[in-house]
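Encode chain A's predicted structure.
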Amino acid sequence: MLKITNLIIPASKIRKFFGKDNAQLRLSVNCYERDIKKSNSEGITMILAHATGFHKETWEPVIKSLFGYNRLDVGKVFAFDCYNHGDSALLNEQILPDKFKWWDLAYDILQIIDYTQIKKPVVGIGHSIGGAGMVMSELIKPDTFSCIVCVDPVLSPHFLIKPAFDMNLISKRRDIWPNRETTKSLFLKNPFFKSWDSEVLELHIKYGIRELPDGQVALKCPKLQEFYTFMDDNSFSVIDAFFRLHEIECPILFLTGEKSNLNSKEWKSLIQTRTQRGEWYEVLGCSHLVTMENPKQVANGIESFVYKHLVELKDTQITPNNPSRIDQYTNFVYSGHKL
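Encoded structure for chain A:
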């Protein structure tokens, strides 16, 4: 059995955007651990960040699987809501800024690590913007992570050259329903959720939705805040992080869905070539929302990668990719080629 403890902690004071009137933003963080420890050691600590528009509980099926593997001694897993998502959005409801900067997410990840006094070995795992956030955290503070897992990260020039998401769809999307029963019925009929794992969908309905004073229910993440998050203050955080991937020295896994709109042979080549210790793992039949569609396979990919680097090769000296190879695609990308 897993014990879940919810922590409310201050967001990082190092950021571009504070709460309204410079108010202190807060973060809702879940800590997962076994009722009975597997060993006397602290084990491996993991910190997980969700995708835009979702929340920390979407990770729970993956988390349960990670604790279930006999080869890994997982001590604690921390999953958190970005300050304008999930329970964090409720905590900050009256002070949410009307802009978002992805680098602020990275500083919040580092804040969680410092505040909870997480010690290595620690694995940073993030989906979509969460994956980019883990990379940015390591760039801000090198040697934070023992290894990183980016699940279909929005971390490519492709995202800006040909936007992966239609921003207009966010503003037009319904986000209020009469009650949870109606919400569940409509979600089950919605093609968007057809491919989701049933447990993840139940968690999304339970934890991604809030009750309103008039008895209706709504998404915890306001759709305007989701829009701000995707827009990233009209900046180039994705480009900045992508072209600094070669600075990351720890092993990094790029786990993607076979049918993801971010997946391409060129992108795979760019990612692997631009990293010192990058690896690739593809889940068949899944889209960008691979964590929601096949959490078991996502967990399998994470477990294999973490076991390889933190157990099998723990004391092995690894020769990274030759840095001279890392920047050969820079001109290719900026010259406007299709990725």
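Residues 323-330, 332-339 have pLDDT under 50 and may be disordered.
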